[in-house]
Design goal:
Elements (H helix, E strand, L loop, with lengths): L1 H29 L26 E3 L8 E5 L1 H14 L2 E5 L2 E5 L2 E2 L4 E5 L3 E5 L8 E6 L2 E6 L3 E4 L2 E7 L2 E3 L8 E2 L5 H9 L3 E2 L5 E3 L2 H8 L1 E3 L2 E2 L5 H6 L9 E4 L2 E6 L2 E3 L6 E4 L2 E6 L2 E3 L10 E4 L2 E6 L2 E3 L5 E4 L3 H7 L3 E7 L2 E4 L2 E5 L7 E12 L3 E6 L7 E23 L12 H7 L13 E22 L6 E35 L4 E11 L2 E5 L5 E3 L2
């Protein structure tokens, strides 16, 4: 009998490591990435490491959470995350229910798993979100703490089938011209304040004061005392999800919606995977970007659906001096099999690209009604280099502006919000010397693009001191376009096997050289546009 017991215990002891390995493998397989995605890449890229979690699970209800939409579950959810982190890692389950909460902080080795019909609603109480030092729109600044955040974490995930709602309508200003008369009337009657021009609604007087203190984008200046910061707290709209300086990050299967400003913002992270995710923001949502991947290294953006109030899939790396000082390019990124339902741009680089962007592969994506299809933007003062960008197999319809846009005179407005005269006036400034503040876009390859219902097929608008260089476009069919191609301040641009169906001018060129259009070479160093045929 004793011998039998000893043997049994020995077998159990020997099996424990095997069980641990099996559980680890199971966790790994659930997040499996088809390795064929790395085949035939146009640049060298390491495989993106996936997080793996021990087979240990807790439920937030074990920590007192209630899914009744009434109880505030901030402490319960964070206590569950801390408990799993302390244990060495595992899964925190958010079950079916309506879970009202304040900010959630992810910790290393934790998979926050949402079951089907789990709805996590972040409170609209501004006071629940402390004002912290952070980075927003590429600048070091103060903002409210994000509803979901992680700092310096490793091996983290948000997975499952649930929904995270950021209560963004409680935070965001709204422009009158983005609403119907009835919608605007209902919004104004709901409370809040309207600016002197009567064109923008703000949720509180503090939000309006914050806007008035803002000289550059959304960063307020001359706000010094703690009392002043607290007064403008509603203006300090956080991104819904902020993951900073973290490694092995996974977002899989869940839905994020209604963010106060940007929705998903990985910043200075390594080994990021975002797959099977859905992001939905109202089309009128100010700064309602779906995804801003900033200064990240080794990332996969696969099989997602984005519906944004601003840019949809956006690659960034900091802004101006702050971005150059950080000096972290966004690099080694695969964007594949994504659908964009609305946004200022389907796939976007910039305008905050001061740390550089390189080695980005975009393929098999569909854009439905985005303002612009492929959008590259920057301006003087940014610095940084965007290079080694490869884009192929893009289908797009109902694009009111450009299918492909390079704009090095970006002024902060969405496509269509600025008139041609506004742009022309900004371009009249004197030509500065090339310095570290001069942005550069070069070595970009675009192929197999099909579009129907396009405003303008392509617009290259480079800087005279730094033309757009080495852009190669081939195998493009654009039908039902209002305008063709405009090329200004560009060098060594080739456009091959391109068909544009338009009633307007097919091709206009000025201040460009070493162009090759459907086999013909062109040069035009004059300021006056030259009309050509493709």
């Amino acid at each position: 009998m004793n011998t039998f017991i000893k043997k049994s215990w020995m077998l159990m002891a020997l099996s424990l490591p095997l069980l641990s390995v099996q559980n680890t493998v199971k966790a790994q397989n659930r997040n499996y990435i088809d390795e064929s995605i790395y085949e035939n890449l146009p640049f060298e890229m390491p495989k993106v490491q996936q997080p793996v979690f021990p087979d240990y699970t807790v439920n937030i209800t074990d920590f007192g959470a209630k899914g009744d939409g009434i109880m505030l579950n901030t402490q319960a959810i964070n206590d569950a995350i801390k408990a799993v982190n302390t244990k060495g890692g595992g899964k925190v389950i958010i079950p079916e229910g309506l879970w009202l909460t304040g900010p959630i902080v992810l910790l290393s080795n934790v998979n926050l798993y949402t079951e089907k019909n789990a709805l996590v609603l972040f409170t609209a109480d501004f006071e629940a979100y402390p004002i912290i030092k952070t980075s927003f729109e590429g600048l070091d600044t103060h903002r409210c703490q994000s509803p979901i955040s992680a700092l310096g974490a490793e091996n983290i995930a948000i997975t499952g089938q649930g929904v995270f709602d950021g209560s963004g309508d409680s935070w965001r200003p709204v422009k009158k011209d983005k609403m119907t008369a009835g919608q605007w009337s209902n919004l104004v009657n709901s409370g809040g304040v309207v600016d002197k021009s009567g064109s923008i609604w703000y949720p509180t007087a503090g939000a309006l004061k914050g806007a008035m203190a803002t000289k550059e984008f959304n960063n307020p200046s001359d706000i010094k005392s703690e009392e002043e910061w607290n007064e403008i707290r509603p203006w300090l709209r956080p991104v819904l999800l902020s993951i900073v300086k973290s490694k092995k990050v996974l977002l899989d299967g869940v839905t994020f919606k209604n963010s106060p400003s940007w929705c998903l913002h990985p910043l200075s992270c390594e080994h990021v995977t975002i797959q099977n995710v859905r992001v939905f923001n109202p089309w009128y949502s100010q700064n309602g970007d779906a995804l801003d991947l900033e200064s990240c290294k080794n990332a996969l953006i696969i099989n997602n659906i984005f519906d944004a109030g601003d840019d949809a899939i956006c690659i960034k790396s900091g802004k101006d001096a702050d971005g150059r000082k950080r000096g972290e390019p966004c690099q080694n990124v695969i964007v594949k099999d994504n659908t964009v339902l609305h946004g200022h741009g389907g796939f976007v680089v910039g305008s905050e690209m001061s740390g550089g962007v390189k080695n980005v592969y975009v393929t098999n994506c569909t854009f439905l009604g985005t303002d612009v299809g492929l959008r590259f933007k920057s301006t003087r003062g940014r610095g940084g280099v965007v290079e080694s960008i490869y884009i192929s197999n893009i289908n797009m319809i109902d694009i009111p502006h450009e299918a492909l846009l390079f704009d090095l005179y970006y002024g902060g407005k969405a496509a269509g919000e600025e008139t041609e005269n506004d742009l022309a006036n900004r371009m009249k400034s004197s030509i500065p010397p090339v310095t570290e503040e001069t942005p550069a876009f070069r070595n970009i390859h675009i192929s197999n693009i099909t579009g129907k219902g396009i405003g303008r097929a392509m617009f290259f608008n480079g800087l005279p001191e730094m033309p757009i260089r080495n852009v190669h476009v081939k195998d493009v069919v654009i039908t039902d376009a209002k305008q063709g191609i405009v090329i200004s301040q560009a060098e060594n641009v080739s456009i091959e096997n391109v068909k544009i169906e338009t009633k307007g001018a097919t091709l206009q060129v000025k201040n460009a050289k070493d162009l090759k259009i459907n086999g013909k070479a062109y040069n035009n160093s004059a300021d006056k546009a030259q009309n050509l045929d493709l």
